[in-house]
UniProtKB/TrEMBL annotation:
It comes from Otolemur garnettii. It catalyses: a 5'-end FAD-phospho-ribonucleoside in mRNA + H2O = a 5'-end phospho-adenosine-phospho-ribonucleoside in mRNA + FMN + 2 H(+); IDP + H2O = IMP + phosphate + H(+); a 5'-end CoA-ribonucleoside in mRNA + H2O = a 5'-end phospho-adenosine-phospho-ribonucleoside in mRNA + (R)-4'-phosphopantetheine + 2 H(+); a 5'-end (N(7)-methyl 5'-triphosphoguanosine)-ribonucleoside in mRNA + H2O = N(7)-methyl-GDP + a 5'-end phospho-ribonucleoside in mRNA + 2 H(+). This is U8 snoRNA-decapping enzyme. The lineage of its organism: Eukaryota, Metazoa, Chordata, Craniata, Vertebrata. InterPro entries: NUDIX_hydrolase-like_dom_sf (IPR015797), NUDIX_hydrolase_dom (IPR000086), NudT16 (IPR054754). The keyword Membrane does not apply.
């Protein structure tokens, strides 16, 4: 990930008290739906439109009241997505990676949580009632995991959006690692270069 250094979780947790920790999660669910009756959706993957107009994942900073990274993440999910997140809990087993940015004393921890489609739909439905809706979070978006016949529409066009920090790279890495794309990798996609 450009400008970021990957850390092992143990190394990240040993950083001194002058480091801040943030946790974010990719939430996804198997989705048997079809777009236009012919394009399989396969999975629903959630991202959010942030207050600054960039796409990112729900989550935020760990603070003193949180007893663990996962407690902080689950608190942030409730604040940003609403009470439907009480139906599941992001755990250490959902952990994917930790990264530091250049010039900042912040370490970002990333998680991916598989939900049932019913849980994901409940999150989408209830998100507008969340404490931070309209403030930190402008709304939820689903990531299109398909590429249209033109080779551009769908995921390649979605990737032209503006993403916060390493969110674009985290998305692509997670989609590939979890096999959420039909091809099992992103290497075959005509992915536009970042602007």
């Amino acid at each position: 990930m450009a400008g970021a250094r990957k850390l092992e979780l143990a190394e990240a947790l040993e950083l001194g008290p002058d480091w801040r920790h943030a946790c974010h999660a990719l939430l996804y669910a198997p989705d048997p739906g079809m777009l236009f009756g012919r394009i399989p959706l396969r999975y629903a993957v959630l991202m959010q439109m942030r207050f600054d107009g960039r796409l990112g994942f729900p989550g935020g900073f760990v603070d003193k009241r949180d007893s663990s990274l996962e407690d902080a993440l689950n608190r942030e999910l409730r604040e940003e997505l609403g009470e439907a997140v009480a139906a599941f809990r992001v755990e250490r087993a959902d952990y994917r990676s930790s990264h530091t940015g250049s010039g900042q004393r912040i370490v970002a921890h990333f998680y991916a949580k598989c939900l049932t489609l019913e849980q994901l739909l409940a999150v989408e439905k209830g998100a507008t009632g969340a404490k931070d809706h309209g403030l930190e979070v402008m709304g939820l978006v689903r990531v299109p995991l398909y590429t249209l016949r033109d080779g551009v529409g769908g995921l390649p066009t979605f990737l032209e959006n503006s993403f916060i920090g390493a969110a674009r790279e985290q998305l692509l890495e997670t989609l590939q690692d979890l096999g959420l794309l039909e091809s099992g990798s992103v290497s075959g996609l005509k992915i536009p270069a970042r602007h």
